[in-house]
Amino acid sequence: MSLVDALDTLIIMGNTTEFRRAVDLVLKSVKTDANVNVSVFETNIRIVGGLVSAHMLSGRVEGMQLEDGWPCSGPLLRLAKAMAARLLPAFNTGMVQFRSFVEIHTFASKRILSVSLMEPYLEMFDN
């Protein structure tokens, strides 16, 4: 998780060599089907948010190979979308509340979160 957190910082600091190395490592090592329980909140802000930020900031990295269709495509964005898809079962509870933890391998959701803690998510996904 810390490496994903560091991606945008590396770009902002101008350390493009380490950014490229970190991106390669993240793309090789982050698994969206690991058999672990994750916090929906932490995974959303740190992993999904970190990947999206790094994806968007990667356009500022001189010499960075960007895919055709960037910023609407790219490996970091695909990884962010895959991880976000693993979080969706937490919101599909059939109730007003949602689950605070998800087992990302099986999509099983656990622990109900209170309505007051859901408000930021409701605003974000209200389209």
Automatic annotation (TrEMBL):
GO MF, one example: mannosyl-oligosaccharide 1,2-alpha-mannosidase activity
UniProt-listed InterPro entries: 6hp_glycosidase-like_sf, EDEM1/2/3, Glyco_hydro_47, Seven-hairpin_glycosidases
Family from the record: Belongs to the glycosyl hydrolase 47 family.
Chief place where the protein resides: endoplasmic reticulum
Protein name according to UniProt: Alpha-1,2-Mannosidase
Subcellular location: Endoplasmic reticulum
Domain of life: Eukaryota
Taxonomic path: Eukaryota, Metazoa, Ecdysozoa, Nematoda, Chromadorea
A cellular component annotation (GO) from this entry: endoplasmic reticulum quality control compartment
One Pfam family matching this protein: Glyco_hydro_47
PANTHER family: ER DEGRADATION-ENHANCING ALPHA-MANNOSIDASE-LIKE PROTEIN 2
Keyword line: Endoplasmic reticulum, Glycoprotein
A Gene Ontology BP annotation from the UniProt entry: endoplasmic reticulum mannose trimming
